[in-house]
């Protein structure tokens, strides 16, 4: 497979009154063309910051990519000029956010909003752009596209609005679509429909997808690979099967245990006790050590390296060192 995106040792910090918040600390990630990757973690784990770094959408005054490379088709986006990024955004990489209302302009018809990118990036005539807008609305499953292309965002339901946002994001056939919690604001049945639509579109268009979510449940249907983030670092990456059936990191075990089970007798969810690390003063060792039931002395003192479990599976945990005691995942983590 051909590589599309590669993050190498990316560090992102925010300047706050309290000091430097080290939100992303040494992230390494890879994505092939047409592949779908889910980045999973609780809020504050660094997943949104990582994706905003790729889009270079971090606030310029208060944040900084301190170190590392973000290679998109070999080109380092960390070093790209604002002008180059403007060309890439929307045309090569597009992003959709949780709340469709914030990304839509309430004063403009949805048709005009889809046409904007086409006119800007692809030099289409008005007529061509309008035709493409109607086709895109059809593609994302909006009935009556010839009529609805003239309507305003408030005339659409929440789910239909998110479909419009997806149509805008796909308008210029981007190579990469980053979706940050795209279904969190929607109710459960609509969520499933939007995820089905995204999977469908990915098959049809070949666009690579990065899905950012706190919910492992939505991952299985859409992603091929998963990266689990904690405390600004990636603690485990693998194929969906590896993460669900052979998880190695105690934090991933905790996430799996906190997932609602289809056939479980008790409906009680097991939350992971404790709170995430303070990234103003990040721990020098494993970020999960303070909450990990298996923590050893070495964990507090030294950051574990990412151990290879298979060619596609890595986990950053001292338990994978050959000198560590053998520990099996708890029963609640078994899917
Ligand atoms: Fe737990 Fe240590 Fe593994 Fe961190 S490195 S997850 S503290 S066992
Ligand atoms: Mg977020």
TrEMBL record:
<dbReference type="Pfam" id="PF00005">
    <property type="entry name" value="ABC_tran"/>
</dbReference>
<keyword id="KW-0547">Nucleotide-binding</keyword>
<feature type="domain" description="ABC transporter">
    <location>
        <begin position="5"/>
        <end position="256"/>
    </location>
</feature>
<keyword id="KW-0813">Transport</keyword>
<dbReference type="InterPro" id="IPR003439">
    <property type="entry name" value="ABC_transporter-like_ATP-bd"/>
</dbReference>
<comment type="similarity">
    <text>Belongs to the ABC transporter superfamily.</text>
</comment>
<keyword id="KW-0067">ATP-binding</keyword>
<dbReference type="GO" id="GO:0016887">
    <property type="term" value="F:ATP hydrolysis activity"/>
</dbReference>
<dbReference type="InterPro" id="IPR050388">
    <property type="entry name" value="ABC_Ni/Peptide_Import"/>
</dbReference>
<dbReference type="InterPro" id="IPR003593">
    <property type="entry name" value="AAA+_ATPase"/>
</dbReference>
<dbReference type="GO" id="GO:0005524">
    <property type="term" value="F:ATP binding"/>
</dbReference>
<keyword id="KW-1003">Cell membrane</keyword>
<dbReference type="GO" id="GO:0015833">
    <property type="term" value="P:peptide transport"/>
</dbReference>
<protein>
    <submittedName>
        <fullName>Peptide ABC transporter ATP-binding protein</fullName>
    </submittedName>
</protein>
<dbReference type="InterPro" id="IPR013563">
    <property type="entry name" value="Oligopep_ABC_C"/>
</dbReference>
<keyword id="KW-0472">Membrane</keyword>
<dbReference type="InterPro" id="IPR027417">
    <property type="entry name" value="P-loop_NTPase"/>
</dbReference>
<dbReference type="InterPro" id="IPR017871">
    <property type="entry name" value="ABC_transporter-like_CS"/>
</dbReference>
<dbReference type="GO" id="GO:0005886">
    <property type="term" value="C:plasma membrane"/>
</dbReference>
<dbReference type="Pfam" id="PF08352">
    <property type="entry name" value="oligo_HPY"/>
</dbReference>
């Amino acid at each position: 497979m051909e590589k599309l995106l590669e993050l190498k040792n990316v560090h992102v910090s925010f300047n706050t009154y309290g000091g430097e918040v080290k939100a992303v600390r040494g992230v390494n990630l890879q994505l092939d063309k047409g592949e779908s990757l889910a980045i999973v973690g609780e809020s504050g784990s660094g997943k949104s910051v990582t994706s905003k770094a790729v889009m270079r959408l971090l606030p310029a005054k208060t944040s900084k990519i301190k170190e590392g490379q973000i290679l998109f088709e070999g080109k380092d986006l960390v070093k790209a000029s604002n002008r180059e990024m403007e060309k890439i955004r929307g045309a090569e990489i597009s992003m959709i956010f949780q709340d469709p209302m914030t990304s839509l302009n309430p004063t403009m018809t949805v048709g005009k909003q889809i046409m904007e990118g086409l006119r800007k990036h692809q030099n289409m005539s008005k007529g061509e752009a309008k035709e493409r807008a109607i086709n895109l609305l059809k593609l994302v499953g909006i009935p009556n596209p010839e009529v609805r292309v003239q309507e305003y965002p408030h005339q659409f339901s929440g789910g239909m609005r998110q479909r419009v946002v997806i149509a805008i994001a796909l308008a210029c056939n981007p190579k990469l679509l980053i979706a940050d919690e795209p279904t969190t604001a929607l109710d459960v049945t609509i969520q499933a429909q939007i995820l089905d639509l995204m999977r469908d579109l990915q098959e049809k268009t070949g666009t690579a997808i990065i899905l950012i979510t706190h919910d492992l449940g939505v991952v299985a249907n859409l992603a091929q690979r998963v990266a689990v983030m904690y405390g600004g670092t990636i603690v485990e990456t693998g194929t969906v099967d590896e993460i669900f059936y052979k998880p190695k990191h105690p934090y991933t075990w905790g996430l799996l245990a906190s997932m609602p089970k289809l056939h479980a007798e008790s409906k009680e969810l097991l939350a992971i006790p404790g709170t995430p690390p303070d990234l103003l003063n990040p721990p020098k060792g494993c970020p999960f050590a303070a909450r990990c039931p298996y923590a050893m002395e070495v964990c507090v003192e030294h950051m574990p390296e990412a151990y290879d479990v298979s060619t596609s599976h890595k986990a950053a945990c001292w338990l994978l060192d050959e000198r560590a005691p053998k520990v099996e995942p708890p029963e609640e983590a078994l899917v």
